[in-house]
Design brief:
The chain is α/β, with parallel strands linked by helices and about 280 residues long. The protein has two domains: about 70 residues, Chemotaxis Receptor Methyltransferase Cher, domain 1, CATH 1.10.155.10; about 200 residues, Vaccinia Virus protein VP39 (Rossmann fold, 3-Layer(aba) Sandwich), CATH 3.40.50.150. The model has no long low-confidence stretch (mean pLDDT about 90). It contains eleven helices and ten strands. Helices cover about 40% and strands about 20% of the residues. The longest helix is centred in the N-terminal third of the chain and has 15 residues. The strands form two sheets. It has a seven-stranded mixed sheet with strand order 6-2-1-7-8-10-9. The protein has a three-stranded antiparallel sheet with strand order 3-5-4. It binds S-adenosylmethionine (SAM). S-adenosylmethionine binds next to loops.
């Protein structure tokens, strides 16, 4: 039942507080007062879809939804998923130049894209692997890509993107790793199978239990922690440290830093951190 008549509903302070504390406890996402209008606008779509007239009805619906599917749908519309291929190109360059050569001897690499959105980040990583490692077929290489939002993961698995998401892809790589599938209404590309085969997508709430054991050689968690408050970031950084292999690298987003967070990483470059390889290095 879809009610197109509901154009907007009022979101009171109490309703906003109820919704934001739910989102904070479930996903760590901090919806400050400045986000109130955005929350109202985005959730009005859910009210419309469910045929509900007010946010009180919506909060009640959420509380009675034993399937948990509305919580997932709510987090889908509230999370910000902006991303594109080769975003923050220097990270991919560092991966190619510094990180991968260290792993050549054992021919094994495990990378985690945490908060991967619609897949542009993990597929960019896969392209770097294919380009940088000529004998990749002889390696044990895998990229795990996880996100909270089921909607972005569905798009990631389809691996079809408009040209606007590919604007940072060098033309040579575009020709090698993408296939043009449509030209109208805009140029649209599909990621080629060798790239897709390297990436495994799964839904994972970073605030919950992590089923994987690791260790990972590299973690990309970029432009995700900006939505979390300091204690949540602190906790997450400690968990990333534990699940990284000694010498492993953590990439964070351009507007993020570990300033103000106590941690045992070594600073490498702005937004690039490394777990010390040995106890001795950690103590230095
Ligand atoms: C802005 S996108 C970043 C995408 C990509 N990492 C990049 O930098 O381009 C942020 C992503 O974090 C995800 N996210 C937010 N909170 C999360 C949580 N608690 N657990 C897992 N993913 C989360 C959102 O669903 C969204 O897809």
């Amino acid at each position: 039942m879809e009610h197109q008549t509901l154009l907007s509903a009022e979101l009171t302070e109490a309703q906003f507080n109820a919704i934001s504390s739910l989102v904070k406890s479930l996903a760590g996402i901090n919806l400050t007062e400045t986000k109130k209008e955005l929350v109202r606008a985005r959730l009005t779509k859910r009210l419309r879809k469910l045929g509900l007239a007010t946010f009180d009805d919506y909060v009640e619906y959420l509380q009675n939804d034993t399937t948990g599917s509305e919580l997932v749908a709510m987090l889908d519309v509230l999370s910000t998923n902006t991303t594109y291929f080769f975003r923050e190109a220097k990270h991919f360059e560092w991966l190619r130049q510094d990180v991968l050569p260290r792993l050549t001897a054992r021919r094994r690499v495990r990378i985690w894209s945490a908060g991967c959105s619609s897949g542009e980040e993990p597929y960019s990583i896969a392209i770097v692997l294919l380009e940088a490692i000529p004998d990749l077929a002889d390696w044990d290489a895998a990229i795990l890509a996880t996100d909270l939002s089921t909607e972005v993961l569905a798009r990631a698995r389809k691996a079809i993107y408009p040209a606007s998401r590919l604007r940072e892809v060098p033309p040579m790589l575009l020709g090698r790793h993408f296939t043009l599938v449509a030209t109208k209404p805009e140029r649209t590309y599909r990621v080629n199978d060798p790239v897709r085969r390297l990436v495994h997508f799964a839904r994972l709430n970073l605030m919950g239990q992590w089923p994987m054991k690791g260790p990972f050689d590299v973690i990309f968690c970029r432009n995700v922690m900006i939505y979390f408050d300091r204690p949540t970031r602190q906790d997450l950084i400690a968990r990333f440290h534990s699940i990284l292999a000694p010498g492993g690298t953590l990439f964070i987003g351009h507007s993020e830093s570990l300033t103000g967070i106590s941690h045992s990483f070594r600073y490498v470059l702005p937004t690039v951190y490394r777990k010390p390889a040995t106890g001795q290095e950690a103590a230095q």
